């Protein structure tokens, strides 16, 4: 089905954010075969069966939303699902939220992650009145550190030896961005 999304807040120049659909189980199964990507996302888990992923995506597609915690897929302009982004630890009273992001290896360094992040931040800052976002990055994930620093995120701290993978402990780095910093650096992109 052709859909004109040019006026959608979820459509950027190179990506579109959308909800999960039952048929997305296969993409998740493929992603789970990439152990390095799973480590970057925070944890390496036991493999799941295709049937369990079918069941999970079916439930996710119809689950009632809980607060402002969202799980979205990222599509490029060709309609390929290239990654996922999701908000979590949302605190509307304090106006603070966090998110996580994964882009499939073959789709990295094409501007998809930057735009997906900015679309999500625009919604939270300009529609839901949040005032600050934070992200936790594994200290070995230099690509994510560079991306977030490029987007204007400020380094806020380090939790030592908080991740264990590949037989070693790694630190978690905390980065944050306020609504004012977002507006100053990125508001012109959405005019």
SSE map:
Layout: E1 15-18, H1 25-32, H2 35-41, H3 50-62, E2 71-76, E3 81-91, E4 96-103, H4 112-126, E5 132-138, H5 142-150, E6 154-165, E7 168-178, H6 179-186
Parallel strand pairs: 4-5
Antiparallel strand pairs: 1-2, 2-3, 3-4, 5-7, 6-7
Oligomeric assembly:
single chain
Query: Helix- and strand-based class?
Result: alpha+beta
Main sheet makeup:
7 strands, mixed
The run of helices and strands is EHHHEEEHEHEEH
Range of helix content: 25-40%
**In DSSP terms, counting alpha (H) and pi (I) runs of 4 or more, how many helices?**
6
CATH superfamily membership: Gcn5-related N-acetyltransferase (GNAT)
Shape: globular
Strand ordering within the main sheet: 1-2-3-4-5-7-6
CATH class: Alpha Beta
Q: Terminal Cα separation, in Å?
A: 28 Å
Indicate the proportion of strand residues: 25-35%
> What number of domains?
1
Q: What is the fold named in CATH at topology level?
A: Aminopeptidase
Quickly give the CATH architecture: 3-Layer(aba) Sandwich
Radius of gyration: 17 Å
Say how many strands there are: 7
The low-pLDDT segments are 1-5
Indicate the mean pLDDT.
89
GO molecular function: acyltransferase activity, transferring groups other than amino-acyl groups
GO cellular component, one term: ribosome
Domain N-acetyltransferase: 15-180
Organism: Dictyobacter vulcani
